[in-house]
């Protein structure tokens, strides 16, 4: 080789596939490893199994050049690479708040048993604090038991990439954080990240615990910021006021900052929701039951946004159809909010089901949850998402999925914009108005120009804004 460390990436999901392709782009030889042969076969053909702008091009280029290869054989990686990145998932355990560490544990164990040379194992997955220290001990134990040759050290290097910007975030991150427990990790990782260091990316080299905590602290802070503005939405929805102006105004204070203060249907995805739950579970295990209790509130505020969309749909349809929104619930009905009876048979267009734009990910998606709740309540829901239809249909096959925004809008009595794809922001209110049966819209992300839509005869209610039923009477 050219003297540069050889890299392996264990786990070729979202995080691992992106990391592998980006490291190849930076000139390294990279071997991606996964237990799923179908995934490995697709990646080896240069196909990305999920939607991520820019990634297919990188993957194709470096699979073709031979710099990036894939295998299901972890022993091959163990013999070949100098640095092994672990990018496997740490999903929420079924029915529990805690993270499931099965895949991380298995990846580290299998490497520790197969490496027969000097090497570095670098965890990138998000894990509960204390995991890296435990795994570091486990590696030492296995190697001593088996009398294996070579020095193997473990480090933790959390990943902060956002879906939709994964390539950019990996190639030019805001900062690099590495937690180390021995002398070999820092110099090796400086070689791996030489390009970023040359670009003056802040380099934070610390202990294992701090590195693990940086990741969960960042995500807990971001989730809190979103729920903070969404809690104020509950106030402005009641008393009046403009949530966007409020966010702009406090955001001008550089200590606060405007980003992640967009009020709407709330956060979802594979990270924020599970990370705040796993953090609460972990600190409780540590005997710190009260420490992260506010995150339970952050989670609740976030989930209440979905109730708000359903309630608003009921109120708007009731006002438009002249029925009392708060008529008594049907006999035996368990509804405590407004009477959801009005949803029966109403055609509702749902624009967007992914948890955010430029992604096909529907994990913990507020939009998909709302669509499903309306369907369950009896509405005739038509869903369109530019990239998310297939993943959504795999979860909720009974919803109706259509191939365009126009098809979703056809004869709709109410339109819900729940994911702020550029395509929806660019909709022409006049043209959209000609397709629907009623010009009623809930802007679940506060991205439409309400005045322009109003001129075209629409009643648009953004989340965080008061709805006045009299306006439709
Ligand atoms: C997040 C973190 O940003 C990233 O650093 C970490 O590595 C993984 O988790 P991601 O899940 O890709 O990334 O999505 P992000 O862009 O952070 O958005 C998360 C959710 O918050 C989305 O559902 C989004 O719609 C919502 N959101 C974001 C808001 O509701 N309001 C905002 O102001 C910002």
UniProtKB/TrEMBL annotation:
It comes from the Bacteria. It is an enzyme of class 1 (oxidoreductase). Keywords: NAD, Oxidoreductase. Its EC number is 1.1.1.22. Residues 349-450 form the UDP-glucose/GDP-mannose dehydrogenase C-terminal domain. Pathway: Nucleotide-sugar biosynthesis; UDP-alpha-D-glucuronate biosynthesis; UDP-alpha-D-glucuronate from UDP-alpha-D-glucose: step 1/1. It catalyses: UDP-alpha-D-glucose + 2 NAD(+) + H2O = UDP-alpha-D-glucuronate + 2 NADH + 3 H(+). Transmembrane segments: none annotated. One of its GO terms (molecular function) is UDP-glucose 6-dehydrogenase activity. Belongs to the UDP-glucose/GDP-mannose dehydrogenase family. This is UDP-glucose 6-dehydrogenase.
């Amino acid at each position: 080789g050219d003297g540069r460390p050889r890299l392996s990436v264990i786990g070729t999901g979202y995080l691992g596939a992106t990391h592998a392709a980006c490291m190849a782009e930076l000139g390294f030889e990279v071997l991606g490893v996964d237990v799923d042969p179908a995934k490995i076969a697709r990646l080896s053909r240069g196909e990305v199994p999920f939607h991520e702008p820019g990634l297919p091009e990188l993957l194709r280029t470096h699979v073709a050049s031979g710099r990036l290869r894939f295998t299901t054989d972890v022993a091959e990686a163990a013999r070949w690479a100098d640095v092994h990145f672990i990018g496997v998932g740490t999903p929420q355990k079924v029915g529990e708040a805690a993270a499931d560490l099965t895949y991380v544990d298995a990846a580290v164990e299998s490497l520790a048993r197969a490496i027969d040379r000097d090497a570095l194992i670098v965890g990138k997955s998000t894990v509960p604090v204390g995991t890296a220290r435990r795994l570091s001990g486990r590696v030492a134990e296995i190697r001593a038991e088996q009398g294996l040759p070579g020095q193997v050290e473990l480090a933790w290097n959390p990943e902060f990439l956002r879906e939709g910007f994964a390539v950019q975030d990996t190639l030019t991150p805001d900062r690099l954080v590495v937690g180390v427990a021995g002398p070999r990790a820092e110099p090796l990782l400086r070689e791996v990240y030489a390009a970023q260091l040359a670009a003056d990316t802040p380099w934070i080299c610390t202990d294992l615990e701090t590195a693990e905590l940086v990741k969960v602290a960042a995500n807990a802070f971001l989730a809190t910021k979103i729920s903070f503005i969404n809690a104020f939405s509950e106030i402005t929805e009641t008393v009046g006021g403009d949530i966007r102006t409020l966010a702009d105004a406090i955001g001008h204070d550089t200590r606060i900052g405007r980003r992640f203060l967009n009020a709407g249907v709330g956060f979802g995805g594979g990270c924020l929701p599970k990370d705040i739950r796993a953090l609460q579970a972990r600190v409780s295990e540590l005997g710190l039951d009260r420490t992260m209790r506010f995150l339970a509130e952050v989670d609740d505020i976030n989930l209440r946004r979905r109730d708000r969309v359903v309630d608003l749909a009921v109120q708007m349809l009731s006002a438009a159809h002249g029925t009392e929104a708060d008529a008594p619930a049907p006999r035996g009905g368990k509804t405590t909010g407004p009477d959801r009876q009005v949803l029966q048979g109403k055609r509702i267009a749902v624009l967007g089901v992914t948890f955010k734009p430029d992604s096909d990910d529907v994990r913990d998606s507020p939009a998909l949850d709302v669509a499903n709740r309306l369907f369950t309540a009896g509405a005739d829901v038509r869903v369109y998402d530019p990239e998310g239809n297939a993943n959504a249909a795999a979860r909720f096959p009974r919803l109706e999925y259509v191939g365009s925004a126009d098809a979703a809008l056809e004869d709709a009595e109410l339109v819900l914009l729940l994911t702020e794809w550029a395509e929806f922001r660019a909709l022409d209110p006049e043209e959209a108005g000609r397709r629907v049966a009623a010009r009623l819209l809930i802007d679940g992300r506060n991205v439409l120009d309400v005045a322009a839509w109003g001129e075209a005869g629409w009643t648009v209610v953004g989340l965080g804004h008061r709805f006045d039923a009299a306006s439709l009477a």
